[in-house]
Amino acid sequence: MARLLFLHGFLQNGKVFSEKSSGIRKLLKKANVECDYLDGPVELQAKDLPFEMDAERWQATLEAHVNRAWFYHSDISAELDLSSTLPYVCDYIKKNGPYDGIVGFSQGAALAAILTNQITKLVPEHPEFKVSVLISSYSFTEDGPDGIRITPKFQDAFTPVPTAHTRLIFIYGANDAAVPCTRAKYLASLYKKALDDPELVSEYEHPGGHMVPNKKDFIRPIVAQIESALGINQQ
User: Fold this and answer.
1) Are 160 and 195 in contact, with CB atoms under 8 Å apart?
2) β-pairing verdict for 33-38 and 2-7
3) pLDDT tens digits, residue range 126-163?
4) I need a surface site. Which of 51, 151, 163, 185 has the fewest CB within 10 A?
5) d(CA 12, CA 30)
6) Membrane spanning segments where (predicted)?
7) Residue 132 parent element (H or E)
8) What is the pTM of this model?
């Protein structure tokens, strides 16, 4: 059985991401693919939010246990800190893996991109992923002398291994206000430029916003690509 690790977004948890990605998850289940949803290690407080939330809504957030994240938000990429998150996820992978691929949304997609690049370095006994699905993804960027660039602190983390054979699938919304699709396209371009086989990179744009698309007509070709990468015979 093939196995995929799912990483949720900011102010979510594994259960919510499972619900939000139900369209993809159900099609994968039919193909006998196990989907494992992990909760982020950061438990957010109201003061950690990059926006205002009234007390009633925040209480509902706490009661639903969706005050989870992979790292604290900052508009300054160099301030982001993964020093505890990466060991947390790698320990989980060591205990529960190996995984054939990884799927991330928003914050989880940024983290999934790093893990895709560095999994064999961070968990030496783990093979490279066969597939990496990055939904509403982004990298840790800043303005440089020649335009946008990866902030130096995370340059190595977001540098793809040229000889990698991981199938990369980018999904983004044309009207995403939280993570503009230009950020996902920029991350995809890094892989296209760096990989020996740029054909490994596919992009799917939907007309929605910051969301996981579930319409079958849209996700069927994506799931077919995942199955192909996993070596699953398609009917």
Assistant:
1) yes
2) parallel
3) 999 999 999 999 999 998 888 899 999 999 999 999 99
4) 51
5) 25
6) none
7) strand 131-135
8) 0.95
229 and 131 in contact (C-beta within 8 Å)?
yes
Q: Minimal CA–CA distance to 68: which of 10, 20, 18?
A: 10
With a CB cutoff of 8 Å and minimum separation 6, the contacts of 55 are: none
Distance CA 21, CA 211 (A): 9
In CATH terms, the fold of domain 2-40+71-229 is Rossmann fold (3.40.50)
Which residue from 178, 136, 181 is spatially nearest to 51, judged by alpha carbons? 178
Give Cα 88 distance to the centre of its chain. Answer: 16
Do 80 and 140 contact (CB within 8 A), yes or no?
yes
Rounded Cα gap, residues 207 and 213, in angstroms: 9
Active site residues per annotation: 106, 176, 210
Domain segments of the chain: what residues?
Answer: 2-40+71-229
Element (H, E) at 105: strand 101-105
pLDDT single digits (tens) 88-113: 999 999 999 999 999 999 999 999 99
Q: Tell me how far apart the alpha carbons of residues 101 and 4 are, in angstroms, rounded to a whole number.
A: 5
- Name which of 211, 226, 230 is nearest 17 in CA terms: 211
Question: Whole-number mean pLDDT of the chain?
Answer: 95
Nearest to 206 by CA among 189, 221, 187: 221
3-state SS assignment for residue 165: coil
